[in-house]
Structures are given as structure tokens and as C-alpha cells.
Amino acid sequence: MQAVTLDVLLAVPVLLTRILDPGHGGGGFGMKAMMWGHTGVFVFSFMCFVYGVVSCLVGKTPYIPLVADAAGRQL
């Protein structure tokens, strides 16, 4: 369930980009905010991946606090 929740999280920046549409070719604040958002989601997802791999190598079940809570609410 955590993997499904992370997959949904990856779709959020694309949806926000389509909704807000900062313009074609504009380099204003909207575009910079979108870039920071995409970068933040990527870094968070990458760190979750690294944490999951390390947890599996150690023999523990990965528990990502924000993601596990959201996944737990889906059950």
C-alpha cells in the first residue's frame, strides 16, 4: 500500500502543472515554483526508495511515516 501511495504522490505535480499552467515559455514565479515542487517530490520519492532498500537489506519492514499513515487510512 505504501508503494501505491507513493505512485499517487508522483502524479500530483503533473496534475498541478495541468491545472495551474504557468504559461508557455514564461519563466516567472509559477514556473520556478513548479520546478521546486517537482524536485521536492523527486527527492522525497528517492529517499523513500533508499530507505526501503536499506530496511529490506537489514531485514526490517520499511515504515515511512507520512506514507504509511496515508496507506493505513486506505485499508
Estimate the helix proportion, in percent: over 70%
Q: Which stretches are low in confidence, meaning pLDDT under 50 for 5 or more residues running?
A: none
Tally the helices.
3
What is the overall pLDDT average?
78
Fraction of residues in β-strands:
under 5%
Task: Write the element-wise H/E pattern from the N-terminal end onward.
Answer: HHH
| β-strand number | 0
Shape: elongated
Give the helix/strand class. Answer: mainly alpha
Sheet having the most strands: none
Radius of gyration, in Å, reads: 15 Å
Subcellular location: Plastid, Chloroplast inner membrane; Plastid, Chloroplast membrane
Keywords: Chloroplast, Membrane, Plastid, Plastid inner membrane, Transmembrane, Transmembrane helix
Family: Belongs to the Tic20 family.
InterPro entries: Tic20 (IPR005691)
Describe the fold and architecture.
It is found in: Plastid, Chloroplast inner membrane; Plastid, Chloroplast membrane. Involved in protein precursor import into chloroplasts. Keywords: Chloroplast, Membrane, Plastid, Plastid inner membrane, Transmembrane, Transmembrane helix. It holds the Pfam family TIC20. This protein is mostly helical and 75 residues long. 79% of the residues lie in helices and 0% in strands. It has three helices and no strands. It has helices at residues 2-20, 29-58, 65-74. Helix 1 (2-20) packs antiparallel against helix 2 (29-58). The mean pLDDT is 78.
